[in-house]
């Protein structure tokens, strides 16, 4: 009875079931979040969890059950706010809905389910009151100025507050102001204090009344008279005093005129007539608002719903016979079976759901799949069996996942259009008509998404005709932009032949031991892979692995590069956005930078020489300055992983090594050598820590306000035999924002740089610090951690020969660096310059923000900020004024003064703001908000 009855039947029917500015699933997510705040293993938490899971199961059943009932009702439940003036069609839909539900309940549900055992079930009244009626605060009657009791904050998200709760809390706020304005001994103030207490007592009693009403409806034995009696009794005992007539005034007698004056002050004129109507018949008014039909029909419907099948025009003449046939065996009724299955999915938990996905071999879906109910817009989902909207639920939106899972565990109502939405069925018909074939799932998804944005079936047919007309051109274009070979049989050179575009590998390409030279940028697409198989890949440009946006086993999936004993030479940058690079005993040379912002680089007994910088992060390079271009590196977030688990693993970095990865590297850095000739920095993007390097000068920024636990505390957690070698020929800087034996750390740290190493933060070395008597400085020596490797009583940083064993200690052998092949190297000069001081972020903000609808997108333009320290702008969006999402729409700062938002939905209003970001990581004040609606 959860969504129907709590906190009361009016809120359930008017708000929880229907889409009123918030998804119904968000009610459940909100309750689940509140459950987690209660003390673990406490009885209070167990009762609240049991109630919330019951709420979930009820809501799950409504999805399929309402689709069946609404089919009989000829529509979903109408949102009637004025029953007396509702249209005949809306009223009849509600009547048919209640008649069918009541008839099935009275005639088809076994009597064993209508037991008095339900009377023993007790709802967690405090939990319901503190989360669905109030905000969980305790009233302070001694000092109303400290009283912060208010309506549950959850209603603010809906954009609509339940009428009766809104009235009572409005009166409550007015009373608090009236009490605070009077002396404590004032008789009127005492009257107001008791009035305030009556409101709070009545709201708490309201939960108990709702529970008794729920049991009355559930048992169906004299249910309607019992429910009416409970509502009427609450109205007599509480409601009258809550709206202006306290039961007790502490011996203080007020004149009639004084009482009238108080009511005049507290209750606005606009509410008085409505309150008088409620006082005269509270139960009648509440039920009327909840169910949208008049009182007489409601009584008859609950007593004998079957008689309504004979009312002319309300049902077809054979309706009763067909309904009896449908429901003769509830266990075989498809909506009943599907309701039970959906309920089970919500009770198996995240691990159970992930196990189902693994059994179905669904890897495209990702992990964000539980609980399913939390992605549903409304419990009344219409009455088209094959158009039930699980909008946002990944195992529904993904065609492959749906075919693997839903077809197996749910039973649809048709076969040809099995689990297809109406849009998808139209796409299927259009594709058959033009192409004389069934579309594959990706084409089906592509066109159905366009139909969500306004395309018709005719638009799809026209697009397919255009596709056929352009097929010859597309074939030629593909030859010029793709590498179409699947295996290379001889040394091959490929040029860019189409407007300088990069070449892409969409499928699996085997170099078969041969040499492939690509004279342009090369992209390994998210569905493609290259296996060198002992061959050589030369890229005279950038080599990029493209991401798919899906995480499997903690790794961003995407393109794949298998070096497999071969050689990779990149005369540009290597960018690994996602996917896997497995060096597999091969070699790799990169003239530029290596950006590992996602995916996995597995050195796997290979050897890599990176002439430029190596960032396990998203890198923004060479942004223009106010007075001209200069070299600037901003290392942002990312999910990249560097894996070094073999003694022969060797990575040499000619420039700087920086990691801001969000992924813990515990057990990934256990062996091999990472040689760094530039600076070494570790930071934590999720902890608000990031790094800017401008013309060789590094600035580490730490924002304590946004820290939260994350895997990136250990994004350089080295252990076992892993070694970092600092071998530069200039002074090298080393900084670690989050370092400690339980956080990021060096395992073996060796210094062969005789120009000096400067540790600009505290440092942690777990196993051995072999400085070879080279000069080094410690900014935070007191908090740094060093071992005593040889056991001679001296910490390694104070020991002139830390790797020489004492007479009683036999340390493990040091791994020796393997000999690198003669790979091309590039020396990058780094000039020390003073750090730039950013502008005061509070002094200015972007101005003149404007928004316009361009086709199916929204274009934003603004006047920028003039500052040499400006990096760019971030754009924030929300669907409620003043409540923009905390994460910006753009992953990297925009250097211009305009942005186009293409990920928008029709018939939706958006609110945008813009913030500037400076070189020190600080932000400007937000721009003025701009609102725009796309139709």
Radius of gyration: 34 Å
Task: Please count the beta strands (DSSP E, at least 2 residues each).
Answer: 42
Main beta sheet strand tally, sense and closure: 11 strands, parallel
Helix content: 25-40%
Mean pLDDT: 78
End-to-end separation = 38 Å
Overall morphology: globular
| Strand residue percentage | 15-25%
Q: Which strand order does the major sheet show?
A: 1-4-7-12-15-18-25-27-31-33-35
Describe, in plain words, how this protein is organized in 3D.
This protein has 23 helices and 42 strands. The protein is of the alpha/beta class and 935 residues long. An eleven-stranded parallel beta sheet has the order 1-4-7-12-15-18-25-27-31-33-35, with no helix packed on it. Strands 2-5-8-13-16-19-26-28-32-34-36 form an eleven-stranded parallel beta sheet, with no helix packed on it. A hairpin with a 2-residue loop joins strand 37 and strand 38. Helix 2 (9-16) runs parallel beside helix 13 (282-291) and helix 6 packs across helix 9. The protein is globular and about 95 Å long.
Brief write-up:
By secondary structure, the protein is α/β, with parallel strands linked by helices. Helices cover 32% and strands 19% of the residues.
